[in-house]
Amino acid sequence: MRIAARLTLLVAAGAVAAACLAGCSDSANWVHATSARHVHTASSAAAAAARERAAQMSQSAFQAAQVSSSPTKIAAVGGALADVSSMRLLWSRELSTERPIGSITKVMTALIVIREGNLNQLVRIPKAVLAYVAKYQAESAGLRPGDVLTVRDLLEAMLLQSGCDAAYVLALTYGPGMTAFLAKMNATARQLGMLHTHFTSPDGLPYPTEYSTYSTPADLLTLGMAAMKSPVFRSIVAQPFFQVVAKKGLHHAYWWDNTNDLIGNYPGADGIKTGYTNAAKHCLLFEAVRHGVTLIGDVLGSPVTGPDTAAFAAERLLNWGFGLPASTHA
Predict the structure, then answer these.
(1) Non-local CB neighbours of 93 within 8 Å, separated by 6+ positions
(2) Among all residues, which ones are annotated catalytic?
(3) Other C-beta atoms lying within 10 Å of the C-beta of residue 258
């Protein structure tokens, strides 16, 4: 099963505030409040105040849409849907509740790598990648130690096949090292105004705990808009698959399918990333465009009754959103 509508994303992202949306079905307004979880001492008061100002700046860029109906049968514990073109939030559920997000984490990993550039750089796959995948029973793109691939190839493997092995190699390369890369992820989250997001892995794997990497429906809209601003990112996540032809002396052949069931099945869907862990359940960050209207949304915690539950929820949200009167999007 897959689903409908092609997206051309307009991003209202700033250096410290990328696009937090205001208003929703569960609240007339919402604000990214300073996360007490990460304010450790009194000396951080100035930084907390700066984050609060960033949240207020972001909030003012969006308005709550006046809607006369609500989507029904959305199988998700949290989520949001926004019109990027008009900067209006159409619907949300538990908008600012922190939850594990699984492999949606890889969107941040990709954003950092793409921003730093040098995507044609050649990277040799280390033997350690096998132990990493085995230790966490992680989703793998099947990377073979000793193969030499470009960074662009690794982005394809990570974003389409959701390869944790590719995320691991990219983090080691662009940190350099895991600790440095995680610091970049969390610094970028703060710069974007994602005040209820924290990363402890580059791929969303549940370590050190199932809940140590988390975000909110609101923050994920911000992340999605920032990532989709990149032509490189957009071109990758819109593909149904990607093939790497074998090159003697460099690497084996690879074929990576897109785990996002919207792509190729919902006309016009352009991405962006799936996620799953036992605690996160099925998650999906998505966007689509129709008649000049760009919608971006996310669903978190869809039930584990089937692999497509998050995509089904996203499809229902998109159908509802595109079915609203034109005045809603104005």
Answers:
(1) 24, 25, 26, 74, 76, 77, 78, 79, 80, 217
(2) 103, 106, 162
(3) 24
Residue 330 — very low, low, confident or very high, per pLDDT cuts 50/70/90? Answer: confident
Contact assessment for residue 147 and residue 124, using Cβ atoms and an 8 Å cutoff: yes
Task: Quote the CA–CA distance of 29 and 56 in Å, as a whole number.
Answer: 11
**Of the listed ranges 67-71, 102-106, 207-211, 316-320, the one predicted with least confidence:** 67-71
Distance CA 214, CA 220 (A): 10
The CB density around residue 135, as the number of other CB atoms within 10 Å, is 10
pLDDT score at 62: 61
Q: Is 115 helix (H, G, I), strand (E, B) or coil?
A: helix
| Domains with residue ranges and CATH for the chain | 36-329 (3.40.710.10)
Amino acid at 322: F
Model confidence at 106, in pLDDT bands (50, 70, 90)?
very high
With beta carbons less than 8 A apart as the criterion, state whether 260 and 275 touch. Answer: no
Instruction: Tell me the chain's radius of gyration from C-alpha atoms.
Output: 19
Contact 294, 7 (CB under 8 A): yes
Average pLDDT of every residue of the chain = 85
